[in-house]
Amino acid sequence: MNILVTGAAGFIGSHVIDQLLAQGHRVTGLDNFDPFYSESKKRRNLINAIANTHFQLVQGDIRNNELIDSLFKSISPDAVIHLAARAGVRPSLESPSLYMDVNVTGTTNIFEAARKLKNPPKVIYASSSSVYGDRETAPFRESDQVDSPISPYAASKRACEIIASTFHHLYGLRLTGLRFFTAYGPRNRPDLAIAKFTNLISQNKALPVFGNGSARRDFTYVSDIVSGVISAMDNCNNLHLYNLGNCNPITVLEMIQTISSTLGIDPIIDFQTAQPGDVSQTYADISKANMEIGFNPSTSFSEGIRNYIEWYRRQENT
Ligand code: NAD
User: Fold this and answer.
1) CA atoms of 160 and 7, how far apart (whole Å)
2) Average model confidence (pLDDT) for the chain?
3) What is the value of pTM for the model shown?
4) What is the distance in A from the centroid of ligand 1 to the CA of 218?
């Protein structure tokens, strides 16, 4: 297939592209190398892809609708995997308009460009577990009410889901939203806790833990996420929404323990007050994704952390 991946140079996008290329697809990657984290890290994520003749990189912004329209016309993709976004819960409290602009306007541009093509592609787009807000009942199901996101980031992702249903209603566009639950692994986004804590523990520095460390996250290994994204693409024929989580939440303290024992260094923990926007738990019910797209995450947290730390050490030595 001929596939367009937005957010190509990011953590999840670069892994998705490597897997699509390994399966023999032709891939165009779009990214604007947004300054949220370093361009050099993002360029490094694409080293394998750039060496493949079935890959081309286009540098551009999803908010630029002329560029998006002409890119869609020129490549006429069979499928679009739309991952470009301003990610991150806490920074979204500082710049809510920016998050709405990139995530909501940018995503609307992608849907609009897709529906205007003679043969509209399937569109798979990234949503987030954060749409579930702060709730006690778990695991979280796609049928749960999700009208109370507690950060601008979460609200922007929920808005994209609603816009997807509008585009499906109006134009019959085939659209699948994927609610990712804290992805981790090699090329981890540097702002996420696993990357930050690995760095700090390695340098014998104190770890800021917001709250008492009992918050739980359903950490999901990136290759499991990638399998889910590709199965979702293969099975996208209508309007769909799936949780892609591990269905096995881990507390922040357990996460720190696993990282520190893998590194062989004791952590120094600095407890701080909980942050606004953070939820107390995420926990995916994945039965729908399992039944409809065969999603079946298989990487245990300890194995995933071992892989991450092997990769981290290789980066440190290059
Ligand atoms: P990432 O920041 O590593 O990747 C996003 C990529 O999008 C970056 O390379 C960035 O340069 C690019 N981008 C940002 N703004 C852009 C714009 N205006 N135009 C074009 N490209 C732009 O993030 P990630 O962790 O790989 O996340 C991928 C997607 O999954 C995002 O939509 C994110 O919201 C979502 N998500 C991620 C997680 C997670 O745990 N990593 C969890 C839930 C949802």
Assistant:
1) 16
2) 97
3) 0.98
4) 18
